[in-house]
Amino acid sequence: MSLHIRLRLRRAGFTLDFNEHLPGQGVTALFGRSGSGKTTLLRCLAGFEPEAAGEICINGEYWQQERQSRPTHQRELGYVFQEASLFAHLTVAGNLRYAWRRVPAANRRITQAEAIDWLGLGELLRRYPDQLSGGQRQRVAIARAMLGSPQLLLMDEPLAALDSASKAEIMPYLQRLPQQLQMPILYVSHTLEEVAQLADHLVLLEHGRCLGQGALNEMLTRLDLPLASAASASAVVQAQVASFDADYHLLSVVTAAGSLQVPAPARPAGDQVRVRIAARDLLLAQAPLVGISALNSLPVTVLALTADTDPAFTLVRLEHAGQPLLARITRKSAEQMQLAAGTELQAIVKTASLAG
Fold first, then answer.
1. Can you give the residue ranges of the Mop domain (predicted)?
2. What is the CATH number of domain 234-353?
3. Candidates 3.40.50.300, 3.90.550.10, 1.20.1250.20, 3.30.390.30; correct CATH number of 2-221?
4. Which of 3, 118, 136, 287 has the fewest CB atoms within 10 Å, measured from its CB?
């Protein structure tokens, strides 16, 4: 499965010029500042922008070739907007049935029972949209989009209109979707925290163009991209839950080359999780340290260094068991330690958090 997207759209003061091959599975995040072209790209894929020229090929099937384009209703896609936009006169069950009935029986890939189970909607089926919380409405909207049996699911900042409690409520459902759906998901966001929790692949957009794309952690730690200089710059390490210390409320997780202790609620042993390590929370030492408050230390090798946007700091890209990490240290420290590519160090993690 693969997506090939080559699109160009001119507007007053803005041009979208996108030409990339994207993964045909998992969650690909479209990330960038407001006005970078994220939503415009989704609208082009959905057929909402008739002036867009180019090519859209989804799993070998062309939705557009130059200006020969299928209308929206002939594109097998699901679209989840910032607002749920449910039918107010229908119950949750009615909204789901509406989407399911629009798909010919032979083309249905997902049953109503599966969508209800995956999004936890069983107790909500008789309610009307005005009887639901914001998070519940978005869960219904996602289930309705899924029941259209799309080849491609487009999600345009589905959490943007929700408060913190509603975001926390819906996030576990979003995290499980890639394992449940055999279809690619394009997810628009301008929040790195969301991207760290959900994305497998990241596309960075700026002024309508792609600055780069790749696996999530590779992109987050690339020194030639602005993500590494952001105040929230971080790396995301894949790990597995080993145990939970109820006395100290610490989760022990195992990475490719060791273990970390992370303040977090209990999780079942064996759960796959993501650990987010902020660049500002990584200290570098030339030898293991003792008698310090930090609980975690990782052996790392320097891959590269570059100047930060703040002249007082240096960005250091590191490698830990094949996974890149990022540290932001003072330029004076980097010079005193004589850091260079290939230097072996200990990375002291002041704090880490679960990203998903």
1. 291-356
2. 2.40.50.100
3. 3.40.50.300
4. 287
